[in-house]
């Protein structure tokens, strides 16, 4: 009797995982990444939750019901749904990306899943096409390094922010192997660029295995709110 294809695929995937896991750990050790794996969630070794830790990121940013949040460079919307759960029905998430097909898929999926508080926006290269003076948080995960003319971009972004808004940037952590995140920008350069754009560094978080995690505020707005 032939084994059903689904079970055969599952067994094959398990065998591959058992073979590859020690090899990955050995390679990571060779690249000096053992410190990163002390922050790794082994219960989610083969999914994004262990890498991105969305609930912990959102908790660190103190996202509240009713907030208006931007998932900038949303892609497939992985973080958008976690953010939408955090802001609730009284809040809103703007999932922003220049990839029109991805945004159409995300909007359709959000509607199918009953997320009325997600709006997918097809952005221009230098314009996120957001409402003015409404945003409480701009969140970027592995998308900051894809932006061009970043100083100009974030200076223009300020018009969309409320006075106490945060900008959270998750990008490549130093020591991350190229086969996990092939490219990125390190915090020292991010901080330099954000300060040049008029933002003030306010916090760093160190719990993500392969991402730096820094938080900024628009300087003039922060000064006014204080």
- Strand arrangement, largest sheet? 3-2-1-4-5-7-6
Helix run count: 9
The outline comes out as globular
The overall pLDDT average reads 82
- What helical percentage do the residues reach? 25-40%
Terminus-to-terminus distance: 73 Å
Unreliable stretches (pLDDT < 50, length at least 5) are: 1-7, 13-39, 221-226
Main sheet summary:
7 strands, mixed
The run of helices and strands is HHHHEHEHEEHEHEEH
Beta-strand proportion: 15-25%
Structural class: alpha/beta
What is the strand tally?
Answer: 7
Radius of gyration: 19 Å
Précis, in short:
Helices cover 40% and strands 22% of the residues. A hairpin with a 6-residue loop joins strand 6 and strand 7.
What would you note in describing this structure?
The protein has 226 residues and is α/β, with parallel strands linked by helices. The chain has nine helices and seven strands. A seven-stranded mixed sheet has the order 3-2-1-4-5-7-6, sandwiched between helices. The N and C termini lie far apart (73 Å).
From the structure above, extract its key features.
226 residues, alpha/beta, seven-stranded mixed sheet, 7 strands
SSE inventory with pairings:
Layout: H1 5-30, H2 34-37, H3 48-52, H4 54-60, E1 68-72, H5 78-87, E2 92-97, H6 100-112, E3 118-122, E4 135-141, H7 150-157, E5 161-172, H8 187-196, E6 199-204, E7 211-218, H9 219-225
Parallel strand pairs: 1-2, 1-4, 2-3, 4-5
Antiparallel strand pairs: 5-7, 6-7
């Amino acid at each position: 009797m032939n084994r059903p294809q689904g079970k055969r695929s599952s067994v094959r995937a398990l065998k591959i995982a058992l073979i590859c896991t020690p090899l990955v750990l050995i390679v990571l050790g060779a690249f000096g990444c053992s410190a990163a794996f002390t922050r790794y969630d082994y219960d989610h070794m083969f999914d994004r939750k262990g890498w991105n830790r969305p609930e912990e990121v959102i908790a660190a940013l103190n996202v509240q019901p009713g907030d208006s949040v931007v998932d900038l460079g949303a892609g497939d919307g992985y973080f958008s749904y976690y953010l939408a759960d955090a802001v609730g029905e009284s809040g809103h998430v703007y999932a922003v990306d220049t990839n029109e097909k991805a945004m159409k898929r995300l909007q359709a999926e959000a509607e199918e899943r009953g997320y009325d508080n997600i709006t997918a926006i097809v952005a221009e290269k230098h314009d996120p096409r957001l409402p003015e003076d409404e945003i409480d948080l701009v969140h970027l995960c592995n998308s900051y390094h894809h932006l061009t003319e970043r100083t100009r971009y974030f200076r223009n972004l300020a018009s969309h922010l409320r006075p106490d808004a945060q900008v959270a940037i998750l990008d490549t952590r130093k020591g991350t192997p190229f086969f996990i995140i092939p490219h990125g920008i390190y915090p020292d350069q991010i901080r330099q660029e954000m300060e040049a754009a008029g933002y003030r560094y306010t916090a760093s978080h160190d719990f993500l295995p392969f991402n730096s995690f820094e938080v900024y505020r628009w300087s003039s707005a922060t000064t006014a709110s204080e």
